């Protein structure tokens, strides 16, 4: 039988990779993509599938119950990728993080309950656990979000669980580590540094550059979410880890090496306030369910760097002509780099 899935935030980085992945992997599924098209959402990310008869785009806000009702009609499944996602932006203004990452999740859950959805995957994040010095967080670890983005995602994460605990909405919650790959908005570490390096502009490395992130290729993330849509257990949380912990300085050096650019482009700048030192996840629970990452970091990073080098028509208009990006860059880095 045909399944119809609502994918929210499908015009963003991970969402667009997931829409494409689902259409390719599940030929009998229909996809409805509900996206508000914020600064981070781009129709170009899905140009190659926009005419697929199994695909429908709806522009709208997950905080609007009427929009959500229309978009979820006829769906059996949903995966909520829609969110405000950038920590640095949440340190400047946080109100819209609360709206989308908490209130929007509530609207989706209420509608999921009303229509009797068969599976609702809430895409949470490893940042809800906060920072860890040694060892790795399991799904049982205490939540300790330490910035407004992480705190708002923790709100959505726990609301999703509450709808399982109270109303038996069949929710699965995922907490993935840092993603990288094609179509990532050039405000996050890897696409920002690759695109700056391609133009011989400085790479603003926060603090001592020794904060650790665990890098997960976006397609490994997509495989995990599809696996959980089909095999996840109701009410459970699953960590999704790349297993590639690296200090930021090491990722930065590798990007420069791959591009044949000098390390003199690295510019140590004032640290992010409240900067989480290290993220680390134990993904044994998801591995036991049959998933494992397939993309080695060195290959994935080389392919990603190549993608940005080959697709400057995708990122140059954002960096050169998008007034919003330019205002943000100036506010975030102007003082640090001067
Ligand atoms: P992104 O910022 O690239 O894309 C977010 C998308 O959501 C955009 O298309 C935007 O237009 C849309 N959106 C924002 N507010 C909306 C609203 N109110 N209604 C409808 N659409 C709205 O984000 P991403 O990096 O692709 O992240 C996707 C999800 O994965 C988020 O929930 C994020 O918290 C989670 N996550 C991301 C990472 C990562 O490393 N990027 C890691 C773990 C979890
Ligand atoms: P980021 O891509 O913003 O993801 P997150 O904050 O969700 O982990 O940042 C990844 C790491 O890179 C984080 O330790 C902060 C650091 N970073 C910099 O050093 N400079 C930058 O300009 C950015 C955007 C991030």
SSE layout and pairings?
Elements: E1 3-8, H1 13-25, E2 29-35, E3 55-59, H2 65-72, E4 77-80, H3 87-92, H4 95-115, E5 119-125, H5 148-167, E6 171-176, E7 179-180, H6 189-198, E8 203-206, E9 212-214, E10 216-217, H7 218-231, E11 237-240, E12 245-247, H8 248-259, E13 266-269, H9 284-288, H10 297-310, H11 312-321, H12 323-337
Parallel strand pairs: 1-2, 1-4, 2-3, 4-5, 5-6, 6-11, 7-10, 8-13
Antiparallel strand pairs: 9-12
Helix pairs in contact: 1-7, 2-4, 4-5, 6-8
Bound molecules: nicotinamide-adenine-dinucleotide and thymidine-5'-diphosphate (TYD).
Which stretches of 5+ consecutive residues score pLDDT under 50? none
CATH superfamily of the largest domain: NAD(P)-binding Rossmann-like Domain
Domain module tally: 2
Assembly context of the chains: single chain
Indicate the structural class. Answer: alpha/beta
| Sheet of most strands | 7 strands, parallel
What characteristic shape results from the CA principal axes?
globular
Regarding CATH, which class of the largest domain? Alpha Beta
Per DSSP E runs of 2 or more residues, the count of β-strands stands at: 13
| Helical stretch tally | 12
Name every ligand kind in the structure. Answer: nicotinamide-adenine-dinucleotide, thymidine-5'-diphosphate
Determine the CATH topology of the largest domain.
Answer: Rossmann fold
Spatial strand arrangement across the major sheet: 3-2-1-4-5-6-11
Q: Give the amount of beta strand, in percent.
A: 15-25%
């Amino acid at each position: 039988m045909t399944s119809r899935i609502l994918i929210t935030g499908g015009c963003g980085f991970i969402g667009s990779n997931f829409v494409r992945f689902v259409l390719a992997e599940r030929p009998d599924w229909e996809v409805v993509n509900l996206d508000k098209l914020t600064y981070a959402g781009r129709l170009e990310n899905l140009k190659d599938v926009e005419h697929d008869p199994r695909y429908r785009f709806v522009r709208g806000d997950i905080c609007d119950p009427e929009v959500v009702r229309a978009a979820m009609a006829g769906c059996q499944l949903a995966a909520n990728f829609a969110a405000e996602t950038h920590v640095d932006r949440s340190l400047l203004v946080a109100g819209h993080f609360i709206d989308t990452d908490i209130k929007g999740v509530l609207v989706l859950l209420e509608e999921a309950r009303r229509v009797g959805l068969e599976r609702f995957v809430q895409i949470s994040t490893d940042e809800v656990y906060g920072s860890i010095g040694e060892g790795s967080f399991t799904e049982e670890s205490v939540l300790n979000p330490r910035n407004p983005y992480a705190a708002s995602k923790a709100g959505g994460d726990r609301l999703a669980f509450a709808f399982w605990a109270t109303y038996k909405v069949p929710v699965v919650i995922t907490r993935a580590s840092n993603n990288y790959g094609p179509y990532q908005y050039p405000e996050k570490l890897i696409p920002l540094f690759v695109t700056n390096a391609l133009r011989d502009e400085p790479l603003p490395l926060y603090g001592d550059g020794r904060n650790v992130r665990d890098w997960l290729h976006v397609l490994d993330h997509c495989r995990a979410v599809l696996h959980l849509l089909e095999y996840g257990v109701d009410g459970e949380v699953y960590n999704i880890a790349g297993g590639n912990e690296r200090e930021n300085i090491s990722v930065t050096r590798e990007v420069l090496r791959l591009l044949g650019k000098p390390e003199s482009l690295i510019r140590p700048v004032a640290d992010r306030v409240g900067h989480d030192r290290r993220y680390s996840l134990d993904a044994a629970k998801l591995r036991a369910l049959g998933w494992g990452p397939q993309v080695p970091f060195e290959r994935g990073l080389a392919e990603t760097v190549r993608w940005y080098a080959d697709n400057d028509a995708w990122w140059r208009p954002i960096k050169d002509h998008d007034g919003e990006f330019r205002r943000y860059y100036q506010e975030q880095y102007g003082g640090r780099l001067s």
